Amino acid sequence: MVTTRLPSAGFSITIRIAVTADASSIGRLTTCVGEAGAVVTALDVVDSDPTQVVVDLTCDTADSAHADQVVKQLEDQDGVDVRKVSDRTFLLHLGGKIEVSSKVALRNRDELSRAYTPGVARVCMAIAENPADARRLTIKRNTVAVVSDGSAVLGLGNIGPAAAMPVMEGKAALFKRFGGVDAWPVVLDTQDTDEIVKIVKAIAPAYGGINLEDIAAPRCFEIEARLREQLDIPVFHDDQHGTAICVLAALTNALRVVGKRMEDVKVVVSGAGAAGTAIMKLLMRQGVGDIIAYDRKGALHRGMPGLNESMQWLADHTNKTNYSGDLPGAIVGADVFIGVSAPNLLTGDDIAKMADKSIVFAMANPDPEVDPREARKHAAVVATGRSDQPNQINNVLAFPGVFRGMLDASAEEFTEEMALAAARAIADVVGEDKLNPTVIIPSVFDPRVTPAVAAAIRAVVRGGPAPANPAAAPESELDQAPEGIF
């Protein structure tokens, strides 16, 4: 039985196998894995003798059940002895993914006297006299708190703060790798809105920004709004704003590819939670023609009962025709489908009923709202959230650069103007001469992305145009030193 799901590096396993030492044994292993629907990515000889060969076979599978199936099919082969199976994702997480390291050497008494007592007391008093100097004289100027209550972790739901830690650690690692930002997980053992606001406000003095992560809607909207009012540092909910920025960037370029204008297109968005709501609001700010918001309750429309405040706002400001049917009906004649919801809601036949030169962003992970292979048979441009498919829409394109720019410019808040500027910067990195249906968004590893986004953010904060060379470094440490300190 071959899986219909797509293999992924997220479910990569390494299998240690002993096989008979004949000319065809290795080929039989790779054939067996391929027939099971997995993808062999490496095969290394570990040991051998005149009668057998021991190999480590690494392959990508679709999920844990598929991995078990692959191992079972290997075990059923004659002359095959499966000795050990290692899940490479779990191996990567052993002991956690991040650590603290010192920026200063402590090799002798003199260095210790400056970094700690007695010298540090002078720095403490300087900050006490002028609290604004904390941005320059402490880690605050480059440190972000990644805050979660574990109530909406990835697509896993309300799994709690401890189980959310691997995601928050990963987020911190991405901040460092792509933006040079020091971030730290802050997982909270409470899901009470008032308590979360109180805790984050209390820890804020140590941080230059707050990144809210995986907090369920609609509480996340209130938490973000209240923290923005009470703090003098930026508060950014990546599930909302990071996703919206990346979607707008990708859609900007997709529309360039198909030759349509934002103000002329009809968009259907599946998912009216944190991400979907932010996407729709940013698209409306950019002047999109019309949007139909679809959620578990159905297509949001005027007169629909039982809506929370956020959904009611969408019902009042979208869906010009007041459509109230199902999702397949909503996308008939639509130019764009954007999914931030659940897997396998649509088929290729549904996509075929969209407008000519349609655009499909199916971003549910790991399984999209529609199989991208089926969608490509009918849509002009297809994007997903998967790293193993073309046009990956990934928040890492946005949040490292957004925070890099806000920290560099000592921003006190995150604004919609910053979101629009960041989206333009990401879209423009591709360059119109490089655009095509499979390249509408830069790679997350494109080194131009973070500098371009950071430059755009700094320009918004400072009220000037983005520099011609977005990769130019921000001010030096001497430039950032407080007045009178050399």
UniProtKB/TrEMBL annotation:
Residue intervals of the Malic enzyme NAD-binding domain: 240-462
Matches recorded under Pfam families: malic (PF00390), Malic_M (PF03949)
SUPFAM superfamilies: Aminoacid dehydrogenase-like, N-terminal domain, NAD(P)-binding Rossmann-fold domains
Region (Disordered): 465-486
Regions of compositional bias (Low complexity) in chain numbering: 465-474
InterPro entries: Aminoacid_DH-like_N_sf, Malate_Decarboxylase, Malic_N_dom, Malic_N_dom_sf, Malic_NAD-bd, Malic_NAD-bd_bact_type, NAD(P)-bd_dom_sf
Keywords, sorted A to Z: Oxidoreductase
Highest taxon, organism lineage: Bacteria
Residue intervals of the Malic enzyme N-terminal domain: 95-228
Signal peptide: none
CDD domains with a match to the protein in the record: NAD_bind_2_malic_enz (cd05311)
The protein's name in its UniProt record: Malate dehydrogenase
Species of the source: Actinoplanes ianthinogenes
